[in-house]
Structures are given as structure tokens and as C-alpha cells.
Amino acid sequence: MSETVNVDPAELAKFSDLAHHWWDPDSEFRPLHQINPLRLDWIDQLAPLKGCTVLDVGCGGGILADAMARKGAQVTGIDLATKSLRVAQLHALETGTPNISYREISAEALAKESPASFDTVTCMEMLEHVPDPQSIVSACAQLVKPGGWVFFSTINRNAKAFAMAIVAAEYLLKLLPRGTHEYNKLIRPSELALACRNAGLDVLHTRGMQYNPVTGRYWLDGDTSVNYLLATRRPAA
Length: 237
What we know:
By secondary structure, the chain is an alpha/beta fold. It contains 8 helices and 8 strands.
């Protein structure tokens, strides 16, 4: 089988069709622009980015990858959506973002090519869009250096998450395009934690991300019932 088999063509098409909107803060990607500072600060607090080599798996148009590079990291962003990658590359050229590069390659293929090559690996809002999340988690664990950090973010699978992340976000508030998420692909924190442990990662921190539709404000707290982030670490050799 191909090294890039762990991908859903429908998901690639979905994000490719929206590629030209990635850097429009008032587009379908507005929520990503709004939550990016929260994700960035949390990562930087636990694993200071300056001077580190960082891999962003499923980087899309480069919103997080670009921000991490501007914090002083040497960043590589990977994705399998060609149009999104081109948008990311063009944005980096236009804005002069330093120390950043993008590649069209799967996490699994890169793990075989360059194992234990990065101080930090991030995989945000991606696991719920692939057929085999465990494969991605395992690849991330292989890509990070011993002692390095791996960060994930995704959406819980329960009635509240269905109501908030799908019905409200996609249909009522229209924060995201309809069909962005499929309920049966969502991942409970316990399932992701188990996937991390199976891949040899220690789960160290969990945070929930909240949204107030009245004020439009996002924040992090301890409630992981809908959107959540996991900070893990590969044991030092």
C-alpha cells in the first residue's frame, strides 16, 4: 500500500476547496485565527519554541506553523492537501516569515525518513479527519526526539460535543462550514490518551477550550467535554 494511505480523499477535497480562504480572518477559518494565540502560548509555556526544531503535522494553510516560526522556532509544516500547502508557502514568501518550510508528505512517511528529528511536534485539529488516528499519533511519537514534546488538539465525542461543535458551530452559529466534522470520527480524551500511551508517549497535561458565542471569546480551562488539547512527552533515552 502507499505510504500516504492514511488519508480520506473527501477530507482533502473539503479543505482544498477552502484553501484560498486560509489567511482571511473573517472566513470559514476565523475560529482558527481566534484560537491560535491560545494554542501558541500554551505550547510555548510548556516547550519554549525559540531555537527549537518543530514539526506541524496537518499544517493546512500554516496558521500555527507561521506563528511558531515567528516565536523563533525552525518549523517544518507537512500536509497532504496540495492547495493548502501552496497557500502556506505563498504566505510565508509574502510576509517574509523566517525559518519555515513546507512539505507534501504524510506523517508516517516522514517518520520513516527522519525519525527522532524534532524537539517538538504539533498535530492540531487533524486527528478527527483521518481514517486511522493511532497511526498519526505513532508517527508523531517516532518523529520527536527523546525527551521532546508532542501536542494534540481535537474534539471530544459525546452529546455535548455534538451539540456544541457540530450543531451549534456548523449549523446555528455558522462558525464553520457544514460538514466540517463527522460525529463518529470524534475522539474521547481517554481514547487519545490510550493512543499516546500505546505510541510510547507520556500524557502530562490536558486542557479544554471554551467559547462564548455572546462575547466571541475563547479561553482555556480544565473542561475537556468539547474541544481539548493534550500535551505529551517522549521519555528521554
